[in-house]
Design brief:
- The protein has 4 helices and 34 strands.
- The chain is mainly β.
- The strands form 7 sheets. Strands 23-34-25-30-31-32 form a 6-stranded antiparallel beta sheet, with no helix packed on it. Strands 24-33-26-27-28-29 form a 6-stranded antiparallel beta sheet. Strands 4-3-2-1-20 form a 5-stranded mixed beta sheet, with no helix packed on it.
- It is globular, with a radius of gyration of 22 Å.
- Bound molecules: beta-D-fructofuranose (FRU).
- Beta-D-fructofuranose binds at residues 1, 50-51, 67, 78, 107-108, 134, 181-182, 233-234, 295.
């Protein structure tokens, strides 16, 4: 994040007052009508959000906390907002979980269930939910001292409804590193200890603790590996399995320096011995090649299932996107899997399986000749800018999906067989005057090698998420059409077929 710019915007807007009003039933119904409002992705009813934080699963409920500024629609003093869901589609907004205090704003972090009460913060046999987050002190930052970011904890004994900050904060004071933030904590069973994965400027530093309060440094990783076009933020470390083998995955968000500009999330695969992470490949890997999936991490306490969610935005323009009463949304939650290609490990992401029950197929075709292009607008014109499109195709030829509206705006999504790349082109997709570099075509390499490719595209009013080859190549882009997408054509560059085509309607959850 460019803090100087944000400070400027913040100080201009500090003069305007935004009221934190309760959302009435009438406002609730208008959410459906709000221009550019996602209808099945999470977005706060009002005001600013950025990173998802502290996601934890407990007693059948998925908790999502997030960077939230409740007094405006641009980034400001950070709180943790809170929402819960049982199925990733029906979300319930809860009261703000953490407010800024004398130690600073509440920056990103994670939550663990301290089942064995290692922290001693539990009471009457109740295990505490412990939030580990960064305290960001704006006054110290102003003074240009280096230690303005420190790690602190808070705990909840009532399933995340109310929080108490630990009196001994910060638990991990800053050793003098300007960017020292976004702790992701996990239990490392083999060593019976907690591991904190922390973003420390241009690298990751691992710490360990027996009680979540007393932390010691274990090792550093990555100053000489991976992409370094910007500062490292919001890491996540977790084990995954592939054919009975354990491979560790380390997610690292970077801003700027993403493959298509601005913010993006890279990842490393390798091993972790409780102290040190060792990468098993030097290949640069991105969880998502689009411009709008940032600062994502996985839910904790979900066992072997790994569920990821990201912030569907980019620091390059996040503060200026043309939404009115709110700014920011999350990606569709994604199940992560491990895959092996050309001897290297890759992470596949696909929409959570809970999505399937909501899909209502409106058109199915086993096999379709593209000829000069096939117009399927009749099937999407009443879908209110939301749909899922699936098909398979032969990668020896190119194809393009043209999504359009009555203004003649177009979002192009496709595959180029010459360059072996997928792309999303939002150059003529709608409003783009808020950011010079917004109207662009973004590309992503095809990682899969089979001749048959499979794509899934999810559209939710103002976002497109492309999952190619079962999530081996993923692109998430936001766009701002002046009216809802109501047309679709699929074109090709020859006499070619696409197969297993399904267009599905998706309900609104607003
Ligand atoms: C990532 C980030 C984090 C930080 C938070 C502040 O988007 O910059 O590093 O904790 O946002 O809101």
């Amino acid at each position: 994040m460019n803090r100087k710019f944000l400070k400027l915007v913040f100080s201009i807007l500090a003069g305007c007052t935004f009221s934190l009003s309760t959302v009435t039933a009438q406002q609730q119904t208008t959410l459906q009508a709000e221009e550019h409002r996602p209808q099945f992705h999470f977005s706060p009813k009002e005001h600013w959000m950025n990173d998802p934080n502290g996601m934890v699963y407990y007693k059948g409920v998925y908790h999502l906390f997030y960077q939230y500024y409740p007094n405006g629609t641009v980034w400001g003093p950070m709180h943790w907002g809170h929402a819960t869901t049982k199925d990733f589609f029906h979300w319930q907004e809860k009261p703000i979980a953490l407010y800024p205090d004398s130690l600073g704003y509440i920056f990103s972090g994670s939550i663990v269930m301290d089942e064995h009460n290692t922290s001693g913060l539990g009471k009457d046999g109740k295990a505490p939910m412990v939030a580990v987050f960064t305290h960001h002190d704006p006054k110290l930052e102003e003074k240009k001292v280096n230690n303005f970011q420190n790690q602190s904890i808070a705990y909840s004994l009532d399933e995340g409804n109310s929080w108490t900050k630990y009196s001994g904060n910060p638990v991990l004071p800053n050793p003098g590193i300007t960017d020292f933030r976004d702790p992701k904590v996990m239990w490392f069973e083999a060593g019976k200890k907690w591991i904190m994965t922390l973003a420390t400027k241009d690298r990751i530093t691992f710490y360990s603790s027996k009680d979540l309060k007393d932390w010691r440094k274990e090792s550093e990783f990555g100053n000489d590996l991976g992409a370094h076009g910007g500062v490292w933020e919001c890491p996540d470390l977790f084990p995954m399995e592939y054919n009975g083998k354990t491979v560790w995955v380390l997610l690292v968000s970077i801003n700027p320096g993403g493959p298509n500009g601005g913010s993006a999330t890279q990842y490393f695969t390798g091993s972790f011995d409780g102290s040190k992470f060792t990468a098993n490949s030097k290949v640069e890997k991105w969880l998502d090649y689009g411009t709008d999936n940032y600062a994502g991490i996985t839910w904790s306490n979900t066992g072997k299932r790994k569920i990821f969610i990201g912030w569907m935005n980019n620091w390059q323009y996040a503060n200026r996107v043309p939404t009115k009463n709110w700014r920011g949304a999350t990606t569709i939650p994604r199940d992560l899997y491990l895959d092996q290609k050309a001897g290297d490990f890759y992470v596949r992401s696909v929409p959570v399986k809970e999505m399937n029950v909501h899909l209502r197929p409106v058109y199915k075709k086993q096999s379709l000749m593209l000829n000069k292009g096939i117009d399927l607008s009749a099937y999407v014109k009443n879908l209110n800018g939301k749909l899922k499109l699936d098909f398979t195709f032969n990668t020896t030829k190119s194809n393009q999906i043209v999504l359009s509206n009555k203004e003649g705006e177009k979002l192009l999504v496709g595959y180029d067989h010459k360059t072996k790349t997928y792309y999303i082109d939002r150059a003529n997709s709608g409003i783009n005057d808020f950011e010079k570099g917004f109207a662009k075509k973004h590309t992503a390499p095809r990682i899969a090698t089979a001749t048959t490719a499979r794509i899934s595209l999810i559209l939710d009013v103002a976002s497109a998420e492309l999952f190619a080859d079962d999530g081996l190549t993923v692109m998430t882009d936001i766009f701002f059409p002046k009216s809802l997408i109501n047309g679709i054509k699929i074109t090709g560059n020859g006499n070619q077929k696409i197969n297993n085509l399904i267009i599905s309607a998706i309900p609104s959850f607003k």
